[in-house]
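To whoever picks this up:

The nightly regression suite flagged Aquaporin as changed. Nothing in the input moved, so I suspect the structure step. Input below, exactly as stored in the fixture:
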Amino acid sequence: MSSSKDRGQDGTDGVSSDDFPEHEAPGGTQEAGSKDEGAGNNPIFSLAGPGANNPASNAYIGDQYMAYNPQYGKQDENPTWSLAQPLPHIVRPGMQHGALPEDQKEDAESLKNGHGAAGHQAQDKSEYGFFNSWSRIRHYLREPLAEWLGTTVAMTIGLCATLSNFTSSGQAGSYTSQSIAWGFGFMAAIYMTGGISGGHLNPAFSIAMSIFRGFPARKCIQYIAAQLLGAITAGGIAYAIYHDAILEVVATSMLPQNASVAATAMITAPKSFVHPATAFFTEFLGSAILFGAIVALGDDTNAPPGAGMQAFILGILISVVVLALGYNTGGDFGPRLVALMAGWGGQLFREYHAWWVWGPWCADISGALFGAFIYDLAIFTGGESPINYPPRRRKRAWRVRKLNLRKKLGLGPRKKTKDLENSVSETNS
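Regenerated output under the current build:
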């Protein structure tokens, strides 16, 4: 059995990293960036919790146990492609250098030209470790792409579960099952993207994270754009998958698509008997509870759950909130836009006094901000929250934002000051 010293980075015996000098350098690559974030070297505003590895097992081991089980605890010499642990990183045959006669010829020419044995690196490897054009694009768009993918997955699962219930007249689902599908759809999406983008999957949560936890405003705008695109993608997928079922419902009910039960599934809105104020505060309350729970789960000074449990708990919480508050209202922009493209009519954006604006946007965003405000007011002690700013820091932050805004608008400062602290002093006086 070979020792760990004889094993390469790819998990194969007798191979060292020097045998494959074209392997990506640890610095400056997209993989290194993701590792830094996963190890906590870079701040990550994730709903999936910290990205650190699980701690070592603390199981009790008897004195004579190792004598009867000598293989216990020894590292496996071969990579394991397990669904219960991180997948191994190996060097595929197509990436290995030296396997083809052409590689040996390139090495010989490099030595002849005085470039040394690593001369082929300059030919195979571009700057910063990008081996192709898509690697470079993905490096700069990895987080928005993750938000797009996560939102697409979560909303596709939820919309399909709702369409299944409505188009089958309750034979292939129920309100309870579709609520669970929404919650666990978001759970799966957070697990899928939480280590890359944080798995916000909702503009309200990104905005609240920016205001109360210091999430960069520039990233917030990128995330919202990616989330909207993901919602549109999910609406298109769900409509395409259930198109035949929708047509069957339309033929049976003798109603147009925008008046059938399919419209209730694709485009949720307040019930006819629900007062507008009740509809608004239903959305407001649900969003406040969800984001209040999110900041609580992410507060390491409180009682955070074990590693990897945040997404599971959020999935259950979303299911419970939908069950408790989802009957009165609901709202979505992406599927509504898909329905407009399908020819359902422009009145979709005017019905219920433009519900899609003051419900899913105004109520949800203000609810998330209120949930974070109440949690920080009652419990949170961290300095990143505006609630805990000292008076001078609060005025300074307001002054910085005002100066930055005037600079971006090309207005310039009203009058010059020697430094920012003098500006704050003048503001206090």
